[in-house]
């Protein structure tokens, strides 16, 4: 049985073949122009889905990079601010040590107090710095407020205790800055653990030079008071008034009881007292104000001079502890900056890996594509010649 092939069928087959060759050629051209072999999900559904997933991962890395840049900028500004604040405290402590001398005159102390006031203003400016983008560094999570407000007698904090945790990697967030309340307002006094203070009503000229813990187990954080029952006799009582120890006072000697030790100079009067307690917190502005006030106050009597000297001696310790506090916060800032650097390295490595995987899924191999283009062109030319030859086969041509 002979199958009859009509002219129309041959023309249809030739046309279909020609269109297929043109479609393959156009496809290869489009791939070479776009650089991608995944022009639609239908090309390779699994590869297309994987590429989409990797695109999302790359976009997340880019967002983490932007976040890291913002956090790094604010942390570097914080570190610089803490460095500047530390310089202020170093100078203030130098002035306190300078003021702790009986050889100074009242004008000398007034000049020191004036410089301390200036340092306080400088510290206030540091505490109110912004990040260059309209946000204050030390306002916590509150925007649009000046965090530290000078009311004249004291400095109040208008920010909050929060901090902005910014994602810099999957499952890793870093605080962009510390709240100002932690940095400037809640600073330990004394040596950071214990603080000694002279009684406000003391009438003698005894000066508390230092206090410290000798036995933490025996002390336990309790408040203890040395009460002078006579200029040369004292008793140590706890917060409930129970007598823990008694003794004879000798100037420039230590008094030890209840796990703590005090060193006194001068001659306390009967009824004078000196208390040691767990170190409370105070803002750095109040510490500077307290020292300046003491230096500016008149000191005509021995008791007034002792009162001033007690404040100056305590301020030296308070400012030293404040310096350590700033260094501690700065160390934490440095740790976060180190985390940013380490995370940046990890992000860079992951970005390279994702780019390589995406390239294998989506990018065109131009050598292969050029070969395919050449094959499509050859096939298209052959199809065109075949179609021309077939179109020339006519019975009427044979009858001529």
Automatic annotation (TrEMBL):
Domain Flagellin N-terminal: 5-141
Keyword Hydrolase tagged: no
Keywords (A to Z) from UniProt: Bacterial flagellum, Cell projection, Cilium, Flagellum, Secreted
Main localization, broad class: other
Cellular compartment(s): Bacterial flagellum; Secreted
InterPro entries: Flagell_FlgL (IPR013384), Flagellin (IPR001492), Flagellin_C (IPR046358), Flagellin_N (IPR001029)
Flagellin C-terminal domain boundaries: 319-393
SUPFAM superfamilies linked to this entry: Phase 1 flagellin
Gene3D superfamilies xrefs: f41 fragment of flagellin, N-terminal domain (1.20.1330.10)
One Pfam match: Flagellin_C
NCBIfam families (UniProt xref): flagell_flgL
Protein family according to the UniProt entry: Belongs to the bacterial flagellin family.
The protein, known as: Flagellar hook-associated protein FlgL
UniProt organism field: Novilysobacter erysipheiresistens
Classification of source organism: Bacteria, Pseudomonadati, Pseudomonadota, Gammaproteobacteria, Lysobacterales
């Amino acid at each position: 049985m002979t199958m009859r092939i009509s002219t129309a069928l041959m023309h249809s087959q030739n046309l279909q073949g020609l269109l297929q060759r043109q479609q393959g050629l156009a496809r290869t051209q489009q791939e070479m122009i776009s650089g991608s072999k995944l022009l639609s999900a239908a090309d390779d559904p699994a590869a297309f889905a994987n590429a989409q997933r990797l695109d999302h991962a790359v976009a997340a890395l880019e967002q983490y990079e932007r976040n890291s840049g913002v956090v790094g900028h604010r942390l570097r500004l914080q570190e610089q601010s803490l460095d500047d604040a530390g310089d202020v405290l170093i100078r203030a402590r130098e002035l306190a040590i300078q003021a702790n001398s009986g050889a100074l005159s009242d004008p000398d102390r007034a000049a020191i107090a004036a410089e301390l006031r200036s340092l306080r203003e400088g510290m206030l400016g540091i505490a109110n710095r912004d990040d260059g983008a309209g946000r204050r560094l030390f306002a916590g999570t509150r925007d649009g407020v000046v965090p530290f407000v000078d009311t004249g007698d004291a400095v109040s904090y208008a920010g909050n205790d929060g901090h902005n945790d910014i994602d810099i990697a999957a499952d890793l967030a870093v605080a962009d800055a510390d709240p100002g309340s932690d940095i400037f307002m809640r600073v330990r006094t004394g040596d950071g653990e214990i603080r000694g203070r002279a009684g406000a009503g003391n009438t003698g000229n005894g000066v508390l030079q230092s206090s410290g813990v000798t036995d933490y187990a025996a002390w336990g954080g309790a408040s203890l008071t040395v009460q002078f029952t006579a200029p040369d006799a004292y008793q140590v009582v706890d917060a409930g008034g129970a007598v823990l120890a008694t003794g004879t006072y000798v100037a420039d000697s230590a008094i030890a009881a209840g796990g703590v030790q005090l060193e006194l100079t001068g001659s306390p009067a009967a009824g004078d007292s000196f208390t040691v307690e767990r170190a409370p917190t105070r803002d750095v502005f109040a510490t500077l104000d307290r020292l300046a006030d003491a230096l500016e106050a008149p000191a005509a009597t021995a008791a007034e001079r002792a009162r001033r000297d007690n404040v100056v001696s305590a301020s030296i310790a308070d400012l030293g502890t404040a310096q350590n506090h700033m260094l501690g916060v700065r160390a934490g800032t440095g740790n976060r900056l180190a985390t940013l650097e380490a995370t940046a390295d990890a992000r860079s490595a992951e970005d390279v890996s994702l780019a390589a995987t995406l390239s294998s899924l989506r990018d065109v191999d131009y050598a292969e594509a050029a070969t395919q283009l050449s094959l499509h062109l050859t096939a298209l030319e052959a199809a065109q010649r075949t179609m021309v030859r077939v179109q020339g086969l006519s019975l009427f041509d044979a009858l001529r």
